Amino acid sequence: MDRANLPVFSVPASRRAFLGGIAGGAALLLAGCATRPEPAVTAPASPSPSTPAPELFPLRGTPVQGSAVLHPSIAAKIGNDVEARPQWGLDRADIVIEELVEGGLTRYVAVWHSDIPEELGPLRSIRPMDPDIISPFGGIVAYSGGQEIFVNQMRDTGLFNAIHGQANTDAFMYRSTKRKAPHNVVLRAEKLIEAHSDLAPPPAQFSYAVGEESPSATAGEPATRINATFSTSRRQSWAYSAEAGVYERSQQDKPDIGENDRVLSAQNVIVLRVNIDNRYEGVPMTMLEGTGEGRIATGGQSVAVTWSKATAKDPITLTLADGNPALLAPGNTWIELVPLISGAEVAFLSE
Length: 351
Prior knowledge:
The protein is mainly beta. Helices cover 6% and strands 34% of the residues.
């Protein structure tokens, strides 16, 4: 068995414009009379109706049906403790970002837009990097609370903050009797979206391959397994299933099972190497404003990228070595924010 351990290599990339074509034609009309011929007259070109570019879900790159796009996204802090699994609705998120928290553990920022579950959770508390992660999506952010300084930073983003225990969210959150606290705060996501339908849909975060385009990773190196180790307590891995056409997720060498006994999976897996700031005692803060190295995996292949993020409100951009924006495959995406600290490692393998 041949193993190729590939290096992880993130500037800004412009938003992509999806193309539509306009077909036109011209007809040549000849006229004549009995006494003498008239010169040929060319009629003005009469273009046929244009073929509009398909409208795509901005966080998934898949075609929109009807008016399904005309609502805000929900970003939520989701627990990843053993007691929090399987999480409600996590398998239906468009984008999931995994981040380091205290004690070498991880939590998720998950974002739903194309497919809003009736309920999702368990909600957990906010952390200092979350405003940088969540601001670009706009819309709604839901969480269970947190230190006052972090809650205030999140409120300063201007997003609608749905916080457990607040009067304006009592109708949308409850504690499930199926789990023990603090792993049991559930969000009624559909109802919260309905209550805030006036908020704008999220802007696109990444560029997607459309039409005859191919995802950038498919021109890269084989990558049938990805190891993303945050700490000894959080060893994450992804194995490519050629049959399903997705990467399937494991934690601590065991399949990561979501709802309905299905293994959590992703069309795209993005691993970004990030610095950690320890300005908040005991609470690691992932640094996202700046630039760094990363790698995208799609379809059993991977390619190096440079990631960059100019300000908190800007999305992360992914740029190829030739300066072009990286293209993802339409579908869901998981992003691993693996810290540049001792014990945290990344490997893209061909098995």
